[in-house]
Amino acid sequence: MRLKYRILGIMRAILGDGMLDADTRRRLRWFLNKNDRILDIGALSSPFAKGRRNFTVAIDMPSTGRFGFIAERVVKLRKWGNIQPVFGNGVALPIRDECFDFVLLTEVIEHVWEDRELISEAHRVLRPGGKVFVTTPNAVRTPLEKGIAEHVRHYTPNELLQLFADFEIIYFHERFHGDIWWYVEKMRRYSYGENGKPRILYAPVFFAAIFLQLTLIYAFVPLQEHFLHSNTLGDNLVLVAQKR
Q1: Rg of the chain in Å (alpha carbons)
Q2: Three-class secondary structure of residue 70 per DSSP
């Protein structure tokens, strides 16, 4: 049965969510309880609340480009039943104190200039013992200039840990960042010669190699982490902190 779910996880990661989202879901399961009330800050499409029974408030600002809420996205989120979308700013949350058990900050803090205010607000709305789950690029391996245009900073491991000094750190890990669409774009670029003509044999061979690589990563990273207790590639940081 476990092998079945491992195979399904590989297929979902490569053909659906992408490696990063699939790995985030796996790690969330370790810390999120079934009755936890979730606040998803910078929610966008709130991908990690979908399909769960947890009551979730998904908060984001009105869209000004690729990010934020648009009317169509808000309507779709409400159809899930457990998700309540709210327009708001993470550095000034329209939410009372200590009313959530779990705060999601997945690929968010690198977009925010007022990062300390954001973390302070997450601390304020969490109940004692509540957790904040954070993912963000690792500046050691992915400098800011290699990020997307909307990023304002990338954190080193020490910088991220210092940012959560008022919390108790219960989990910290440097993980891989496998994005299938990045590989697809690479394949598209390298499938054409200098004369602009397609390399007929190059594309399928390249795609097969990348497919195998990602399959092996997704299949064996959990085993490496569990048995060797070692970090994997380290392009992305995962932190879970608990309110004292």
Answers
A1: 19
A2: coil
- pTM of the full predicted structure? 0.77
Residue 16's pLDDT band, with cuts at 50, 70 and 90, is very low
Query: Distance (Å, rounded) from C-alpha 243 to C-alpha 225?
Result: 26
Query: Residue 62 — φ and ψ, nearest 5°?
Result: -60, 140
Residues in the chain, overall count: 244
- Cα–Cα distances (Å) from 125 to 41, 98, 137, 190, 204, in that order, read 12, 4, 25, 48, 50
Do the beta carbons of residue 43 and residue 85 sit within 8 Å?
Answer: yes
Angstrom distance (rounded) from CA 197 to CA 50: 43
Q: Mark out the alpha helices in 126-240 (DSSP H runs).
A: 157-163, 180-190, 202-228
pLDDT digits (tens, 9 = 90+) for 40-96: 999 999 999 998 999 999 999 999 888 999 999 999 999 999 999 999 999 999 999
In this structure, the number of other CB atoms found within 10 A of the CB of residue 39 comes to 27
CA–CA dist 87, 70 (Å, integer): 10
Query: Which residue type occupies 226?
Result: H
Domains annotated for the chain, with CATH where assigned, are 20-178+231-243 (3.40.50.150)
40-49, 57-66, 103-112, 195-204: segment of lowest average pLDDT: 195-204
Q: Which of 58, 31, 18 is nearest to 179 (CA)?
A: 18
